Description:
Number of strands: 9
Structural class: alpha/beta
Largest sheet: 9 strands, parallel
Radius of gyration: 17 Å
Strand content: 5-15%
Order of helices and strands: EHHHEHHEHEHEHEHEHHEHE
Strand order of the largest sheet: 2-3-4-5-6-7-8-1-9
Distance between the termini: 13 Å
Shape: globular
Number of helices: 12
Amino acid sequence: MKSVALLDGGLGQEIYRRAREVSSPLWSVAVMREQPEVVTDVHADFIRAGARTLTLNTYAATPTRLAREGLGDEIGAIHQRAFEVLERAIAITGATVDIAGCLPPLVGSYRGEPARTFDDLKSEFDILVKLQGGADVFLIETMTNSLEAKAACAAAGESGKPFGVAFRLETDGKLRSGETLAEAVEAVKPFGPTAVMLNCCDPEVISQAMPELAGLFPCTGGYANAFKTVEPMAGGSLVDELEARPDISPAAYGLQVKQWLGDGASVVGGCCEITPEHIRHLADVLAGDYDLVPFSALAGT
């Protein structure tokens, strides 16, 4: 039976949606500072749904983003809190799961290539890897250019832990930088990721690209969002401006995910607006055909 790593869903968006009267460029990190119990509840719901790998709620907690909001000196405390709320959820549920460190775009999502050097980017990712040293694995997410992806891979690789790198494709099948999927995969191969994935794209974009991706790298995966469009946020607006697609039900999403698995994927889950209900449906429909495992179980396969 093929092993498939089942990730959680759209953690940040689920936290933000449940929060009481929080609106911030720091998104779910702002919620965690004021309402940590919301974050624990969301983690616990994803665990109960069947997720085998749970991501730390640190997507917006990069040095660049925290400094921009005047919270640079709180970075250590924020990352410590992210571990505490997830570990509490694991204790509540009694589950055995991977804790995934999160290495996101350093400035914000859906942008092009940053005007920074590889060494400059890597030094910032090094800080995040050190702060998240207690994680079992690392997930590099929503990469829109190979330069930033390579810097994150270099930092994650030095941890000695399994890591995956996920690119976001536009509707034309290319990265926002203009690079092709093949160019992006070739750029990160030398760093030895456990998996190369696609995330925070429309499900249909991942479905179209997965056969090519599976031919480019031995271990691949996908986890889509369910936004109507991300363009307002790409232009600098808050995530508050984005709307969910009503047609991406758990059953509809499950059909897309099964197609990715049929095309060769070994890692699946969800990104923004993919809820615990979506993950529960995936766990239910995949359990008979696949061995659902934590991400770390794929290392070395």
